[in-house]
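Hey all, quick one. A colleague (J.T.) asked me to put the manganese (II) ion job into the tracker so the inputs and the structure tokens live in one place instead of scattered across chat threads. No bug as far as I know, just bookkeeping. Sequence used:
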Amino acid sequence: MLIVMQSHASEDKIQKVIEFIKQRGFDAHISRGEDHTVIGCVGRKIIDKRDIELLDGVKEVIRITSPYKLVSRVFKPDNTIIEVNGIKFGGTHIGMIAGPCSVETYEQMDETAEKLYNSGVRILRGGAFKPRTSPYAFQGLGEEGLKILRKVADKYNMAVTSEVMEVNQIPMFLKYVDILQVGARNMQNFNLLKSLGEVRKPVMLKRGLSATIEEWLMSAEYIMSGGNREVILCERGIRTFENMTRNTLDISAIPVVQKISHLPVIVDPSHATGLRDKVAPMSKAAVAAGADGLVIEVHNNPDCALCDGAQSLYPEEFAELFKDLKALAVVVKKTF
Ligand code: PEP
Ligand code: MN
């Protein structure tokens, strides 16, 4: 951190700032210019920069190191590649996850999974605990939903992902799922993130509705600092002033995160747009921008879906899209 003192700050003020940071375990490196004195504050401890900004004579405090460490490429320069059921996310690999928003019945999952399997999908999604905005909306089948998801996945040799909402649900989830999904609304549920740090299964961390990239990476840092190194970041659209789509897909988040972090970044075009006809173009945009994977909502009968039917693809539509995406991947030197 660099502390820039006000022009011609008195020696007394400079010494008080130095004393302040030293008391908190930092070293001070002083550089005296003609007008300004700059104090380099070096150390491993955490300090709130506002505490320094408020000191007498301080003009500005500039942070020069990032607050995240384990998620950063400085810590690990090479891409992290996460493999689930033979499907890889990261590096030159693009992983595909597809399935309905929610598990509704065995038949619905079975029919959807069979069609997805036939189009080459090996990781099935399906929510069993749904974070709905309205308490009157379908809340999911709970553990029964996880059982159906697992049973159907086993029938087709598929892996599964589903959203975990609370710390006390983790042991139950570990019995049924291969990837634990943290939903956008829980991105800053720090107790949940800490507990997922102790898990030894991949976690798909969705970006919060209004989260900055730095906040999203800090949430990943929570999981990694607990010892779990398998975090898949999922961009699912953020809230902006635009209301023609459910959210605004932040495509630039892909290259931005990939430059800072070694973790795979995947895209959810379904929740990002909320509209079926926007899913294919946004999936293609994601692949073109270098995404390490996609998670797409597909339902055997979207018109009767209990949740998110309008953004769910028909299985045939998905099959076509998946073919196009595979062709597109070649252009960016990646493979599904
Ligand atoms: C979901 O994937 O079903 C979901 C609820 O997504 P998000 O948390 O991104 O809204
Ligand atoms: Mn959904």
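Adding what we noticed when we looked at it: Residues 101, 127, 131, 163, 183-185, 206, 236, 268, 271 surround phosphoenolpyruvate (ligand 1) (CB under 6 Å). The mean pLDDT is 96.
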